[in-house]
Known about the structure:
The complex is a heterodimer.
Chain A: E1 11-13, H1 28-39, E2 42-46, H2 56-67, E3 73-76, H3 81-91, E4 98-101, E5 104-107, H4 109-118, H5 120-124
Parallel strand pairs in A: 2-3
Antiparallel strand pairs in A: 1-3, 2-4, 4-5
Helix pairs in contact in A: 1-3, 2-4
Chain B: H1 4-14, E1 19-24, E2 31-37, H2 46-57, E3 67-73
Parallel strand pairs in B: 2-3
Antiparallel strand pairs in B: 1-2
Amino acid sequence: xxxSPSEPLPMSSTQPAPAPAPNADGNPIRDAIAEAIKExxxxxxxxxxxxAPACGFSARxxxxxxxxDAPFAAVDVLPDPRIRQELSxxxxxxxxxxxxxxxxxxxxxxxxxxxxxxxxxxxxxL
Amino acid sequence: MPSAxxxxxxxxxxxxxAHADVEDYTGGGxxxxxxxxxxxxxxxxxxxxxxxxxxxxxxxxxxAIHALALKTDAPSQIPTN
Lengths: 126, 81
């Protein structure tokens, strides 16, 4: 099997980027996603970027995180449809955005906003 | 194109004892908001509760159904006041 270097995820980050993951066999996109989730305490997979969200659900989720002054990494799923496919396969969650904290899926927009309003989000991000 | 009533019936048929209120909030038949209570949600995390509802629709979520905003509760979690 030809080994091509895995393409970097389209990330914008308020944290330093992790070193590129070694190219494991088979599924470089899924591996890159799993690596990014592992490397960042708080990481949001979204449509667009935090500065220019391309969907209202992503925009609301970003706004909740920003209002808590929580540093987070963000991955734009739009440039390559495979990112979304592989992310949803990995997380068993069908929609975007998806927020991960400490490697765990916290939820999409609805859960994040509910947790923001109840104060649970601030607790989870500590 | 599903209606809010279709979405409601499918959720209530698939999850035992579920009660769903569904709103088509754009009127376009592809963006819905649902509030679902079901005894089956008891003891589950929100993630697990939402997954149960998403599972009713499979790949239609993100396809024909562009958005299904969810609020889920087990019946005992509903505030009484």
